[in-house]
Specification:
Thiol Ester Dehydrase, Chain A; 5-stranded antiparallel beta sheet; elongated
Length: 165
């Protein structure tokens, strides 16, 4: 089965952009820190954040990459509200997340309104050890604040795998 069709290949270089409808907020940062089990006081305590040199509490590093607060859409069939490329891959495939490479450039504060751009950087088709087709798709998300300051980058690899029948 060929997964890297001309229709799929046409997505290379596409960029979409989202701007959050509101600031991140202190409670979102607090809930995320709690959810990931990180009790760093800089995420919840003004004085601890000030002692560390921050103007306000800060978010855990991966917060901006893992939040969907920039998305203002409806959940998909799986309940997901974030960005999805919805690539026109042939029937009989499954999507597997292949990994992330994060870069963090600036602290993220509660008053940040996220502006996120996603770009499909590349695609490669391979054959698995079992002989099924694999399509590796890399995309880059850049997270900026309302002033345009780069906060973080997230390079993600998605793997579309032919399901053996």
């Amino acid at each position: 089965m060929t997964l890297l069709t001309d229709e799929v290949r046409a997505y290379i270089g596409r960029t979409v952009r989202y701007t959050a409808p509101e600031a991140l907020g202190r409670s979102s940062i607090r809930y995320f820190a709690r959810a990931v089990g990180d009790d760093n006081p800089c995420y919840t305590d003004d004085e601890a954040a000030a002692r560390a040199g921050h103007r306000d509490v800060v978010a855990p590093p991966t917060f901006v990459c893992e939040t969907n607060q920039y998305a203002d859409g409806r959940p998909d069939d799986d309940g997901y509200v974030g960005h999805s490329w919805d690539l026109p891959v042939p029937e009989g495939t499954r999507l597997v997340r292949g990994g992330h490479e994060y870069e963090f450039h600036a602290p993220v504060h509660p008053d940040v309104v996220l502006d996120v751009s996603w770009t499909v950087e590349g695609m490669e088709e391979k054959t698995s050890r079992s002989g099924t087709s694999l399509l590796l798709v890399t995309s880059l998300a850049e997270y900026r604040d309302q002033a345009g300051t780069l906060l973080a980058r997230n390079r993600e690899t998605l793997i579309y795998q032919e399901v053996a029948t």
